[in-house]
Amino acid sequence: MDIKKYFKELASEAFRSFQRRMIVLSGEREEQYRILMSLRGQILSYEERVAFETPDNFTLAPRDTFKEVERHLGRTYDLIIADFHRSLVPNDLGILVSTVRGGGLFIAIVPPLDKWVEMRNFFHSYILTPPYRLEDTKTNFVRRVINKMREHEGIAIFENGELVKDGRTGARPYRRPRPRIPEARLFPREVYEIAVTQDQVRVLKQMEKIADGGVFIVTSDRGRGKSSALGLGAAGMALASGRRLRVLLTAPRAANVAEVFRFAGEALRAAGKRFDVEVYKGDVTALRSRKLVMEYWPPFKAVGKKADLLLVDEAAAIPVPILFRLRSSAPRVVYSTTVHGYEGTGRSFTIRFMRTLKEKEGKLRHIEMSDPIRYAPGDPIERWIFDTLLLDAEPPKLENVDLERLKYRRFSIEELLEREDLLREYYGIFVLAHYRNNPNDLGILCDAPNQEIRALLQDDHVVCSVQLAREGGLDEDTCRELYYGMYPAGNIIPDMVIKHYRQEGFGALRGLRIVRIATHPDFMDRGIGSLMLKNILKEEADWVGASFGATPRLLNFWLKNGFIPVHVSPSVNEQTGEFSVIVLRPLSNRAKKIVHLVRQEFFRRFVYSLPDVYREMEAELALQLLQAAVLHKAQPQLTDVQWKRLIAYTYGPATFEAVRDAVFELVKTYFESVKRPRMNKLQKLILVGKALQGKSWEELAKELGKGETFIMVELRDAVRKILDWRIQQMGRDDLLREVQEFKAREYRPT
């Protein structure tokens, strides 16, 4: 068929059905651009169009690069042309497809399919880690993309100008029904009239119901108008209020909330209200008018701020503890998240977070939006991209799990790609767990030579999923380069040990880094994750390790399985508020020798950084890290004057502030001593938070939920217990006499 005629027919079907269609032009690059130029008239008829990675002389559409693709998230176009000859990054593919609106076309320019499936591109260079070479990478992801293009409707494939797969589906014409605006409403009609779908109207109506207070949850797949509905709802609440409404807006990134600001502004404009916006680094971060003040803050920084209304967008990508802490920011709270999409998954959010929130709140309003806003329901390109990138993968439905029946399996990615059902179960557990997946994760799993797959199965169904990365095995030259500052691709743990502990030889050891580990959400806290670790520890390696955003609960999982903390990031992740921790479990004698030294150095480095670098860390997390120290016969290095000042503090009139230097040394050595007086957990937390971290009395009292006076008394008692033990241990009669003298005077510290 003549390609001009076919293009016209496919474009017409897309327009009538308000669905998207895709054209794949496969062949030699120059020939494909000649075909595109022959379609000049049709291409120019699309008003909003953009081309990616096209040659400099390509003039049929404004040009951009894949490097800038994230700038287009949230925007929509009638036509996208993308040249994948040199690069196919999964994230880029997901974002670009999402920007095509209903009635539009996505044109992919690719090499000859039989050659493309064997070619290495930019993505392979990006995921390559030493000691592997480019030829060690795989091409499974491109093969998957091609196979899925052949399977799904709505995708036309041309090879060397010949149509080999028809993209026409015979879809019926579609006209979106106008949403019904409720007669009884609190928000102005102008706000409702901006809504495009009935789902958005439902969201606005539910936001009216929390005007007097309450919690509302919105979930949806990508492209359902969730963020724009939040913006309309915030403006509607402000316009209906008798005073200026203060709205606190948070999400993992400012770019996530661009639509919230945009539609809040549209609603204000429709109501005849003027407003100003503030822009920071290209993103809107505040909107101000006489009726509404809306400010964006990253999640960790939003905690503790107060407002009339709190909007949390993409909540699934924010740690649950922060979500609960944010609840107290406002009497009216809306949590929203994407269930399946390119920003990550919200399935675990809907299952676990909502269950716990309902227990705390009692009444909970929830709407799941299903109507696509950018295209008609049943869009074949959405089905293709969701299937290809496993955006809608879910774990198996299981009645029960028996630890005795679980089998440990090693899979190659090729095996799982041949068994789509098992692949979806394996990947679906990650999707449903706390991991924020994106398409690149799948691409890395498919093509990186150092990535490996492990699973626990029951009756051929996946119960626990693990993704491993082989690290180390580096030659002397690479280890030396790391030692002097080279930043490597991958090899996170060898690089850390070499750079921070100057152990150049560690790079030669071969290890397994656990990239991700997740258990089926219906069967957590049953020892399944620990069983998985026991099996991994039997594998042939010098060490096993992991890097993760630390919470007390998660760190405890690793500690109870014999892993040792060896590194803490010097700053928190701005989105999550978590410190990253690296843990190690040495297996070979060479690894044990190095890790023993590293463990000792880690304690010194960590404890002396507590008053500064880690001052804001939760005392409970700091305590866990300190208790992993190598215990020995540690002796405090104190002068006679410092010993006597400690006695004056614990038995006399001295204040903590007057003797902090000596208390720090005394408490530091307490935590690294083999035999030491027993303390309850609260006393240890007070010792860590005040004596080592130097938090104010007010800060620590708030963190531990106790009064300041209680903290002061408990600290003095705990220090006295350590001091008495040390004096007795040293046999210092002179210090004992000084203690007795204070006791004889019956001095009562205040």
Describe the fold and architecture:
The chain has an eight-stranded mixed β-sheet with strand order 10-11-12-9-13-14-8-15, with helices on both faces. A seven-stranded mixed β-sheet has the order 3-2-4-5-1-6-7. A seven-stranded mixed β-sheet has the order 16-17-18-19-20-22-21, sandwiched between helices. The protein has 750 residues and is α/β, with parallel strands linked by helices. The chain is built from 30 helices and 22 strands. The chain has four domains: 3-165, Rossmann fold; 189-369, P-loop containing nucleotide triphosphate hydrolases (Rossmann fold, 3-Layer(aba) Sandwich), CATH 3.40.50.300; 403-599, 3-Layer(aba) Sandwich (Aminopeptidase), CATH 3.40.630.30; 640-744, no CATH class. Strand 13 (309-312), helix 13 and strand 14 (332-338) form a beta-alpha-beta unit. The protein is globular.
Write the layout of secondary structure elements.
Layout: H1 3-17, E1 21-26, H2 29-38, H3 40-44, E2 49-52, E3 63-64, E4 77-83, H4 90-98, E5 100-110, H5 113-116, H6 122-127, H7 140-151, E6 155-159, E7 162-165, H8 189-194, H9 198-209, E8 214-220, H10 226-240, E9 245-250, H11 258-270, E10 276-280, E11 283-288, E12 292-296, H12 299-302, E13 309-312, H13 320-326, E14 332-338, H14 347-361, E15 365-369, H15 380-388, E16 407-411, H16 413-418, H17 420-432, H18 439-447, E17 451-458, E18 461-472, H19 476-483, H20 492-501, E19 510-519, H21 528-536, E20 543-549, H22 552-560, E21 564-568, E22 580-586, H23 589-609, H24 619-626, H25 640-651, H26 660-671, H27 681-692, H28 697-704, H29 708-730, H30 733-744
Parallel strand pairs: 1-5, 1-6, 2-3, 2-4, 4-5, 8-14, 8-15, 9-12, 9-13, 13-14, 19-20
Antiparallel strand pairs: 6-7, 10-11, 11-12, 16-17, 17-18, 18-19, 20-22, 21-22
Helix pairs in contact: 9-10, 10-11, 24-27, 25-29, 25-30, 26-27, 27-29, 28-29
